[in-house]
Amino acid sequence: MEYERSKKSILKWILLCIILGAAAYGLIYYLYFYKTNSKEGIGNTDWKTYRNEEYGFEFKYPSYFDYSFADLPTKGYLEIRGNRPEWLIVSAKSQSINGFEYINHSGAFSFRYDTDSQVWIPDQEGVSQNFAPQMIIVENGLVYHYIRTGDGPTTTHKAFIPHPNKNMVIEVTVSYNMSYTECAQPCPEEKPYSNDNTLSEIISTFKFVK
């Protein structure tokens, strides 16, 4: 009888330790992973604003993208990168969305957008529409076409935004390198702040201005 009580007591302590361990792990995961990713990216706090008078648009972007190598008026694109393996690139393409070409370099195929049918048409038979950009309409009425691609450890998110008043498409790209997940610790590649939601957060602040 005494043995049975002792056995039950040990099992209770083991169960309690497992529950406390799981709770501690969950707290650590939340504080380190969730807070690290969201402390600058969520809620549009501590963001900077980029405004381009020539092309007539502006957007906000996280402040960890802290310096640029080129600007739209001189080079046709804006590249902003932070001190971690991630990039924000904005390009102004001088062409209409009708017939606009998206090239998938990994699959060696491309799509062209047809405004009449509102479909991205592949350049070869047998290519699934799953590889084509998808139209998205945000709350403020902005329309853009979104595609996500991956090449090795690098993840890339693209948005093609038709300009309402110009014969132009604004291309916004967020890329980040996830190789830190595959290397021994301490890893020389730091964890990027950007994640799968970063581009959509940026696009939610995008607007055309007069």
Describe the overall structure.
The chain is an alpha+beta fold. It is built from three helices and 13 strands, in the order H-E-E-E-H-E-E-E-E-E-E-E-E-E-H-E. The strands form three sheets. A seven-stranded antiparallel sheet has the order 3-4-5-12-11-10-9. Strands 1-2-13 form a three-stranded antiparallel sheet. Strand 1 and strand 2 (57-62) form a beta hairpin. The N and C termini lie far apart (85 Å). The model is unreliable at 25-44 (pLDDT under 50).
And the CATH topology of the largest domain? Protein Transport Mog1p, Chain A
User: How many strands appear in the DSSP assignment?
Assistant: 13
- Major β-sheet annotation: 7 strands, antiparallel
Low-confidence parts: 25-44
Distance between the termini: 85 Å
Cα radius of gyration in angstroms: 23 Å
In the sheet with the most strands, the strands line up as 3-4-5-12-11-10-9
Search tags:
alpha+beta; Protein Transport Mog1p, Chain A; 2 domains; 3-stranded antiparallel β-sheet; 13 strands; globular
